[in-house]
User: Fold these one by one.
Assistant:
Number 1:
Amino acid sequence: MNAFRIFLMGIFITISGYTAVVVSNHGMGLLQVFFRDMAKMGWPGQFNLDFMCLLMLSALWLAWRHHFSPIGIVLGFAGFFGGAFFLSAYLLIESFRVEGDVKALLLGKVRARTSE
């Protein structure tokens, strides 16, 4: 679990630094560039579409893990719009909350208890 936590911290730090550089050089115009590349039907757009589907899966998992409760829906939106930056922080925090229990980390505490 410690190696996973270090990996998550690496993701968070790397994306934070990279994003800071991109924003300082190009501003906050992510969505316009993102969807323009998709509309061109080229490889950058294909990558963006694939990535957006992964974001949707992440959002769905977060909402499901929290039983589609109001906080689960909010976390789902945060996962969709925050990407790996949000998900790495979320998983790091949750890994401590569940005391390293991978089953509880993936399923949530309630589902992890009922599946035993």
Number 2:
Amino acid sequence: MEEGKKILAAIKPGDYVVLLDEGGKLYNSEDFAVWVNKKFAGISNDLVFVIGGAYGFHNDVKVRSNEKLSMSPMTFTHQMIRLIFVEQLYRAMTILKNEPYHHS
């Protein structure tokens, strides 16, 4: 519960909160880029991605979230997911800008 309290304390009331959770919606890189673009265009406050600890999210954090997103059906440590997520976010930005980083 302590981790959940810390997460909730860091979230502002109007934030759009997305939990990175193995049970969330799974996208390929191109579809994730489209999803990110829609979120940037459709929300007025901050888009907040939350990575849970080893035992997942406290129920209060789940209730506060707006959406769940999966990076893979496999399980990764939360340390590894940080790197994987940042790379996918970077990839999404390059896809949206038509830069040559991503190869379809």
Number 3:
Amino acid sequence: MSLSIKDLKVYMPAKDFEQSKRFYAALGFKMSEGWGGATDFELNGNQFRLQDYYVKDWADNFMVVMGVDDADAWHQHVRRIAESGEFDGVRVKPPEVVGDSLVLHVVDPSGVLLVFVQ
């Protein structure tokens, strides 16, 4: 018997559900209706479910790590989104070298840490 997983989807919190949906759409994720009032997002076959649910301590300790080809390009893209003023609480740090990787840290409108690793 071989155990395997065909799919894995995390449920992410949203402090302001509508703003978070707009934020992830602006990042480039394709949005579709999820289950139970949640919204699914997909980019290059990678998915997560955004839920209209928020607990500050949970959101402030929630982290998503994404492997990317170009952390600098993501930095420029996310910085433009953050500087638009459309999204409250979004923070972007310049990419930094960590070991042999280039790492970009972004905080979404709910306080979730997005880590882009090249």
Number 4:
Amino acid sequence: MTHVFAAGDQYLDSDVVFGVKDSLIREFASMPTGTAVDGREMTQPYYHLNYDFGLKAASEARRSGERTA
């Protein structure tokens, strides 16, 4: 799964594909105007999230019964 859900979102409990898992729910940090992490100048406040995705090898995913692309 390559989707992160915003903590506190009103639709977390009504996900029709049941993809919401606690490990994928994260707090997005509210950031002020100014220079963003990537160096861009932000003229409006914005939200920021750092999240590391881990990828499984296709052979490992098949062994665990997960769908591979």
